[in-house]
Amino acid sequence: MKRSILALASGAFILGAAEFVMMGILPQTAAAMQVSIPAAGHYISAYAIGVCVGTLILVFGRKVPPKNLIILFMIIALVGNTLSAVSFNSPMLLAARFISGLPHGAFFARARRMAKSWPNRGRKSMMVTGQTVANMLGVPAGTLLSEMLSWRLAFAILAAWALMTMMLVIAWVPFVAPIKDAGIKGQFRFLTHAGPWFILMAVFCGNSGIFCWWSYVSPWLQKVGGWDSSLVPLLMVLAGFGMVIGGIAGGRLTDLWKPGATAGLSQAIATLGLLLVFFVPGNHVTTALLTFLIGFALFFNSSPQQLLMVQAGEGGGELIAGAAVQIAFNFGNAVGSIVGGAALTANTMNYHYTGLAGAPIALIAVIMLVTYSRRYETH
């Protein structure tokens, strides 16, 4: 079991790092592809759109043994990151990022379901370890490689990691029978209720708001905070540390309080952070603190929102419910990156405006979650 969990954690790492690494290497990638920073933000959106489209794999592959699907997901990740590493123009990199995103949401939904029959400690380790290491170490390492050697090397290492993970899954993950087929209608039946839509809209709006700023965090740190590019990897570690602390705090508060209210508090913290991005003059101290704070808020809502969707999908829609959170999360990433880029273009590349663009959208998430909590949560 420990080796099986390690294999799945390795998959969580490569996908988590592939999703977030572009934020740290955006300036170098934009320069290499000869596009502007706002245009380079589309590389983030392309990955996020791939996540949304890739969820269809779960719908049409619901009868395929989970282990086989996990292997397929790693093959797709290998192809996407390899193409990213060798991309010679912007359209090719956009396509490669789209391919890289295809397995993301489907992997996490399927892996969680596979691990559900395993020990509690293993389930927690699989998600927390993989994603934590990706955010705390993987993304900063990719940023450092880009600064010292080449941004292409970051994707090449991710491709090699996907290949290694595929070998680990083949060797260590046991056969698990597919879940009972509830049919396509049965999988989507939970969406006939209003409650899940409140949650999904909140996830979408919350991430849209945060990614207006987060998509451009690297140039923001340099232009507003005055940080040298060589120090950006350290700030990425700080953001990852904030995500780790936020994930732990959100999980513990969810155990003590209402999940919807906990998620609402998280989005309120994010809204405050985005407003401070706009109003507070930039320096080393303020930008470092805001990097930690918004990273904290981004993962503070992870546990409560996932719990809400798992509960909503019980009775046949568990896989789609788990994937739906990933779709909303990444669709929000895509829209947020586009809105943030538009704000930069409209305001002569003033990076303060990424916070102003995102704050009202994040506030909508707060309203959605407060409404959900007052209407549906009773304890």
Write the layout of secondary structure elements.
Elements: H1 2-33, H2 37-40, H3 42-54, H4 56-60, H5 66-86, H6 90-101, H7 104-115, H8 120-148, H9 151-172, H10 183-188, H11 194-214, H12 217-223, H13 232-256, H14 259-279, H15 284-300, H16 302-312, H17 318-346, H18 353-376
Helix pairs in contact: 1-3, 1-5, 1-7, 1-8, 1-9, 3-6, 3-17, 5-6, 5-7, 5-9, 7-17, 8-9, 8-13, 11-14, 11-16, 11-17, 11-18, 13-14, 13-15, 14-15, 14-16, 14-18, 16-17, 17-18
In short:
With 379 residues, the chain is mainly α. It is built from 18 helices and no strands. The mean pLDDT is 85.
How would you portray this structure in words?
With 379 residues, the protein is an all-alpha fold. Helix content is 82%, strand content 0%. Helix 1 (2-33) runs antiparallel to helix 7 (104-115), helix 7 (104-115) runs antiparallel to helix 17 (318-346) and helix 14 packs antiparallel against helix 16 (302-312). The radius of gyration is 19 Å and the shape is globular. The model has no long low-confidence stretch (mean pLDDT 85).
